[in-house]
Design brief:
Layout lengths: L5 H7 L17 E4 L4 H17 L4 E6 L8 E7 L11 H9 L3 H14 L8 E7 L5 H16 L5 E8 L2 H12 L9 H16 L8 E4 L5 H12 L6 E4 L15 H7 L13 E5 L6 E6 L6 E4 L1 H18 L7 E6 L4 H10 L4 E4 L3 H8 L4 E5 L5 E5 L1 H9 L5 H16 L7 H15 L3 H5 L7 E6 L8 E3 L4 E4 L3 H9 L6 E6 L6 E6 L3 H18 L12
Parallel strand pairs: 2-4, 4-5, 6-7, 6-8, 11-12, 11-13
Antiparallel strand pairs: 1-3, 2-3, 8-9, 9-10, 13-14, 15-19, 16-17, 18-19
Helix pairs in contact: 1-5, 2-3, 2-5, 3-4, 7-8, 7-14, 7-15, 10-14, 10-15, 17-18
The structure holds 2-acetamido-2-deoxy-6-O-phosphono-alpha-D-glucopyranose and magnesium ion.
2-acetamido-2-deoxy-6-O-phosphono-alpha-D-glucopyranose binds next to loops.
């Protein structure tokens, strides 16, 4: 059956592509200034409909957010039926649709997808969407709605539902719930609170509640939604105090606050001075990233507990539980990226004795590697991550008969953990609950958690070069293939430093090349980072000032 596009083409005239803008579906979808995204969002409606038809009418999600970017930015990403990121094979289609110059080019791009993917356009399509608190959100949602209405107006069956303001992980959760007919949970925000809340209460039952957790909400969607979750759980079990929770005042989103600020600045955000007795956490603008932090009691300095620390804590707890549950055949593994601190990798391998995989930067790469373990813990150092339980692990939890009360308890706790953890994507809320459960069980302070290992001094330097596409990496970003010869030079330098490590990769979200270095002490680490950055600058036609700060 041919696709009736007359209403769609009519609607599309209202959402023309701006000339002189080239769009790329990057690591985390499209992301740029909100006013440049009208046509892109309209066209992502098309992609979601085609993808849904291709998947036999299963629900596809669309999330409008630019995460930790400044408030004027916005962005869009698609969510696949299992609640995961869009299949990477479809990313070039997103780029092609977004860049079609006019309606003729747009319909041609659509036809190409239909042919290449053998899509039966007569199949129904269902799309759900949500957005964060950005001011450009409502108008962009309007564009998306117009697209979906127009596509549904012809002979094709297109249905959709607007879920309003949501965190990114909540939308991922809802997509999975719909496509599992409720087996994963009820496909509503209340269903999400219910599922996480019930598992959390089960896990902390009988333990003394911790002191309040002060949460920096980045002045974003995390604020109203965490308030709802906390209310649902109740103060007897979870006490949170929200800071940077202003989603009304213009210009505040991610401004001097949030997980990205805290991680990159290694410092307290706005409105948190830091008291040694307090416990802090920070979310990013769409609540899919989490870091903890505190003030050291002795030297009164800022201390960060990043994604590496969270993954170490989670792996330790889960490893213990699987042992107590008698599930020796279930492999617990951890996935990190090259940005993971070397000390964390050593801790995982040597102390916890769990297998560790290094994946390319970007959540989708870690997610797929984590699926290879029975229980796969994955976190990026920047605080994005979760834990996946595969089918054999879930089955073992359901079928193992306990031979002692202790074994039964461990099995119950693992089952509750698999409910508590949002397995579709990294989720700051579910990760907060996971960390709080573990700290409650151990009755640990943040500094006790931090004592598992000490981070090696590390430094990240950005270099602006003529063409970042000239940089190609292999082995999960750890080695450069191009420009030829540069990797050998980096190796020579690194060999001169105790516990030295450095790698260079082009950013997927900014027009820069990133240099990472770590070494046995702060001075050597800074020197190594800036020497490598200087080499990159010289070899690749660096722009602006040559990085020399610590030389
Ligand atoms: C995106 C990725 C994040 C990655 C970051 C790297 C998702 C949802 N987010 O924010 O995982 O760490 O890009 O940025 O995949 P970079 O390429 O600029 O270093
Ligand atoms: Mg985010």
């Amino acid at each position: 059956m041919p696709l009736d596009l007359s209403a769609f083409i009519q609607a599309s005239f209202k959402h023309p592509k701006p000339a002189n803008v080239t769009y790329t579906y990057g690591t985390a979808g499209f992301r740029l200034r909100g006013e440049l995204l009208d046509s892109v969002i309209f066209r992502m409606g098309v992609l979601a409909v085609l993808r849904s038809k291709k998947m036999d009418g299963r629900t596809i999600g669309i999330m409008l957010t630019a995460s930790h970017n400044p408030e004027p930015d916005n962005g869009v990403k698609l969510v696949d039926p299992r609640g995961e990121m869009l299949d990477t094979q479809w990313e070039p289609y997103a780029t092609e649709l977004a860049n079609a110059a006019d309606e003729t080019a747009l319909t041609r791009a659509m036809q190409k997808i239909i042919e290449e993917k053998h899509i039966d356009v007569g199949k129904p399509a269902h799309v759900v969407f949500g957005r964060d608190t950005r001011p450009t959100g409502p108008a962009l949602i309007q564009a998306l709605t117009e697209c979906l209405e127009a596509l549904g107006g012809g002979t094709t069956k297109v249905t959709f539902q607007d879920y309003g303001i949501l965190t990114t992980p909540q939308l991922h959760y809802i997509v999975r719930c719909i496509n599992t007919q409720g087996a994963y949970g009820q496909p509503t925000v209340e269903g999400y609170y219910e599922k996480l809340g019930a598992a959390y209460k089960k896990l902390v039952q009988g333990h003394r509640r911790l002191s309040p957790l002060v949460v920096d909400c980045a002045n974003g969607v995390g604020a109203p939604k965490l308030r709802e979750l906390a209310r649902h759980i109740g103060e007897d079990h979870l006490l949170v105090r929200l800071v940077n929770a202003d989603t009304e005042t213009p210009g505040q989103l991610n401004h001097q606050c949030g997980a990205d600020f805290v991680k990159t600045q290694q410092n307290f955000p706005a409105h948190i001075e830091g008291h040694p007795k307090e416990r802090y956490a920070a979310l990013d603008g769409d609540a899919d990233r989490l870091v903890y932090f505190y003030m050291d009691e002795k030297d009164r300095t800022f201390k960060l507990l990043d994604g590496d620390k969270i993954s170490g804590l989670a792996a330790m707890f889960i490893k213990d539980l699987t042992r107590n549950a008698g599930l020796e055949n279930i492999t617990v593994g951890v996935v990190q990226t090259a940005y993971a601190n070397g000390s964390s990798t050593n801790y995982l391998k040597d102390v916890l004795q769990v297998p560790v995989t290094c994946a390319q930067t970007g959540v989708k790469h870690l997610h797929h590697e984590a699926e290879k373990y029975d229980i796969g813990v994955y976190f990026e150092a920047n605080g994005h991550g979760t834990v996946l339980f595969n089918h054999p692990a879930t089955q073992a939890l359901a079928e193992t008969r306990a031979r002692s009360p202790a074994q039964a308890e461990a099995l119950d706790q693992l089952k509750a953990l698999s409910e508590l953890i949002n397995q579709t994507v990294g989720d700051a809320f579910s990760d907060i609950l996971l960390v709080e459960v573990i700290l409650t069980h151990r009755q640990w302070s943040l500094s006790q958690w931090d004592h598992a290992y000490t981070d090696l001094p590390n430094r990240l330097v950005k270099v602006v070069v003529g063409d970042r596409a000239a940089f190609r990496t292999t082995n999960a970003d750890t080695q450069l293939v191009e420009p030829a010869g540069l990797q050998e030079k980096i190796n020579e330098l690194v060999a001169k430093y105790r516990a030295g490590r450095s790698f260079v990769r082009p950013s997927g979200t900014e027009d820069v090349v990133r240099v990472y270095a770590e070494a046995g002490n702060r001075h050597e680490c800074d020197q190594l980072a800036f020497k490598v950055a200087g080499m990159v600058f010289d070899l690749a036609g660096g722009k602006g000032e040559r990085p020399t700060e610590f030389l």
